[in-house]
Amino acid sequence: MEKSLKELADHLGGLVAGDENALIRGIASLDDAGPGEITFLANPKYAGKVATTRATAVVLPPGADRHGMNAIEVKNPYLAFAKLLTLFHVMRPEAKGVMAGAFVGEKVSFGDAVTIYPGACVANGVKLGNRVTLFPGVVLYDNVEVGDDVTIHANVVVRERCSIGNRVIIHSGAVIGSDGFGYAPDGAGWYKIPQIGIVVIEDDVEIGANATIDRAALEVTLIKRGTKIDNLVQIAHNCVIGENGMICAQVGISGSARIGEHVTLTGQVGVAGHLEIGANTMVGAKSGVPGNLPANGMFSGIPAIPHREWLRSMGTLPRLPEMRKTLAALEKRVEELEEKLAVK
């Protein structure tokens, strides 16, 4: 594929500086790009490399020094980089239909351009939209619904009656709709509470490898539109995850938690059940969230506290041994003074 700089600028919504007819056939880093390739400057720290790159053109923010190079000016070069990668390298494979070795049950409905690889299992009553791809080992239980332009990678399991929206990507080993962790005390043992709800995944969600999202006890575990879920994340029954959230690796969210829109939970955050985290809030890595958090905040620590307070606390922590010695010395001096006063 070759595109002129003008065509790429139109695609990105940017402005050309230099030769708009220059032809581009690929994308590479500032260090590695060569003739016929376009590169990008997202971090001002590397601005000097624009002068030495061998690329034909560079994507950079308005006002940045292009050192006489052909350029496309955009507000967000990193986003432009992602769009160019998609344009040059992400090609939709040709549909292959139901391939030999796949199992398809009864009353399954298919959209157009579906691909079901050998070893996939599609149970009774499943509904598949247009341009769905199911890789080997995918198992869709009875009456699962899958929207358009969905890719489900190898060895994913989607349990009965769960719903997957449009343009969803689910990576290998994820389990959608496993039983919620619910048991009633029964003497010295436990009685399993049937989990009769479902999981609903809305449009444009991406779910990482070996993530698990449990079905609701009664109603719906809901992942709203645009949320991105990393590998090895656990989302328990009856949770609601708001739109455009970012849930990083090894996060665990307990049952019935409600997470607002555009919330970021960074690596290994633990969230207790039956609480709310407000919109646009960020929680730092390894934090523990035992109670509600307001919107538009930044929190860290165990338990999670406002991030600035946590920074001050962490600044004190390395000095604790020295402070302990100082405190012991002060205690000794106080005792000596008290003894002297007692003698008088």
Describe the structure in your own words:
By secondary structure, the chain is of the alpha/beta class. The chain has 2 domains: 3-89, Udp-n-acetylmuramoylalanyl-d-glutamate--2,6- Diaminopimelate Ligase, Chain: A, domain 1 (3-Layer(aba) Sandwich), CATH 3.40.1390; 97-308, Hexapeptide repeat proteins (UDP N-Acetylglucosamine Acyltransferase, domain 1), CATH 2.160.10.10. Helix content is 16%, strand content 28%. The chain has 4 helices and 39 strands. It has a 12-stranded mixed sheet. A hairpin with a 2-residue loop joins strand 21 (183-186) and strand 22. It is flat. It starts with a strand and ends with a helix.
Instruction: Give the low-pLDDT segments.
Output: none
Give the integer mean of the pLDDT values: 96
Query: How many alpha or pi helices?
Result: 4
Distance between the termini: 97 Å
Highest-level CATH class of the largest domain: Mainly Beta
Helical content (DSSP H or I, runs of 4+): 10-25%
Radius of gyration: 27 Å
Class per helix and strand makeup: alpha/beta
Any idea what the CATH superfamily of the largest domain is called?
Hexapeptide repeat proteins
* Overall number of strands: 39
Count of domain modules: 2
Please describe the biggest sheet, giving its number of strands, its sense, and whether it closes into a barrel: 12 strands, mixed
Question: Reading side by side through the largest sheet, how are the strands ordered?
Answer: 8-10-13-16-19-24-27-30-33-36-38-39
In the CATH hierarchy, the architecture of the largest domain is 3 Solenoid
Shape: flat
Predict the CATH topology of the largest domain. Answer: UDP N-Acetylglucosamine Acyltransferase, domain 1
User: Per DSSP, what share of the residues sits in E-state strands of 2 or more residues?
Assistant: 25-35%
